[in-house]
Amino acid sequence: MPFSSTANWCAGLVLAWAGFSPGAARAEEAAGWPAIREETFAVVWQTVNDAYFDPKFGGLDWAAVREKYRPQLAQAAGKPELRALLQAMLGELQKTHFAILPRETAVYQPGERMRIGTTGADVKVIAREVVITRVRPGSPAAGAGLKPGDAVRRVNDQEVAQIAEFLAGSGQTPARQAAHLGGFVASRLRAPVGTGVPLVVAAPGGEARLVTVTCAATEGTWSEPIGNFPAQLIERETVRGTDGIAYLRFNVFLPSLMKDIRAWLRKLPPGDGLVIDLRGNPGGVTLMAQGICGWLTKDEFSLGKTHLRKGFIGLAVTPQEGAFLGPLAVLIDSGSASTSEILAVGLQEAGRARVFGEMSVGAALPSVFKTLPTGDLLQYAIADLQTPKGVRIEGRGVTPDEAIMLSREDLVAGRDPVLAAARAWLTLQRKKSAAVPGGKS
Fold first, then answer.
1. Per residue in 260-291, pLDDT tens?
2. 80 and 131, same domain (yes or no)
3. Quick check: 31 pLDDT over 90?
4. What angle do CA 377, 379, 382 make, to 5 degrees?
5. DSSP string of 82-137?
6. What is the rounded CA–CA span in Å between residue 229 and residue 371?
7. Which range, of 26-40, 80-94, 111-125, 379-393, averages the lowest pLDDT?
8. Largest Cα–Cα distance of the chain, in whole Å?
9. How far apart are CA 266 and CA 88, in angstroms?
10. How many domains does the chain have?
11. Where among 101, 134, 153 does a domain terminate?
12. Which of 158, 186, 187, 218 has the highest Cβ tally under 10 A?
């Protein structure tokens, strides 16, 4: 089953530059380490060699890449150094969804959830600054006095401005730079329960201040692992306002969410408007985009094609009984990736939805996970994707119909101009529909 989550990849480039995140166990040198190290390197290279969707590697000499990095293996004294080396090798592909996920950060058993403690703060990049967008009530971040609009200047011993400068010279698009930077800081805000995370933050126009936030247990519902794909914390928010505008947000595309989303959509009155908020959603199971779209249309259409090394797979959408057919708005930003992008651009090209927000990251390669001899996970892409109009999302992103930027001042004031614009458009569409005798949304 293909996955399209890009969260791990977003931090990969920066992790290779800045070092492995604190809290991960360092491999002790042992007599068997050189053999494990060699085997792991070979597995990563060979897996990509066999599965990469373009047999010509876009002109890259993949065999030469192996010879470039293999002599450096002797310098990898433990897992952190090997991860950095492998990530650098994968970086030669200049594609998303190629990453090394440390086993210490993955959750497969309920007892391992203590590894993923949280500060309770969410972040995103605004004008090349990593800014806190949400602080959960009662969380360690709230207790430390962090507020929406605060900019993170330093996390642990890493200066955020230095990372931003490094990314600015990486040749990545602005949206990808934002995804890398935001993903890196977000990864530092999740650490084993009890870990203190030192931060330097500053409110708009305020002085920088040092705070230490201790990660607490992550509360909520977890998905079940799917093969080598680890369990994920699930968030879902559904609201229907008295104005007839409904709002749906979920943080990852996973099968365990489908039943509840379908049931909620089927309860919406025919004349409602609907917002699907995909901001910060890194993707997940690719096929979920087809399922969700089937509950939002009366017409068959396609989300595009995934092109494998041999052949392709079409992403057809089949209308479902009781589908919601009212006006639809989709919200995206630089944190919207993979399956989020596939869904957004598919609905956009089909004329079914209007897209609001910021340019998405441009990371839409279906991928799978593989366990390595070290125990770590290799995420690798197995296909490329084109929309029905022949547009490649990878490296390009999804362009919103209405580009709206969020500011730090908006966050401080509790405003959401992206959502407000979507709601205004939906209200107008509902009025237009109501004004037409016998009109339907």
1. 999 999 999 988 999 999 999 999 998 899 99
2. no
3. no
4. 145
5. HHHHHHHHHHTT--SS-EEE-GGG---SGGGGGGSEE-SEEEEEETTEEEEEEE-T
6. 10
7. 26-40
8. 80
9. 47
10. 3
11. 101
12. 186
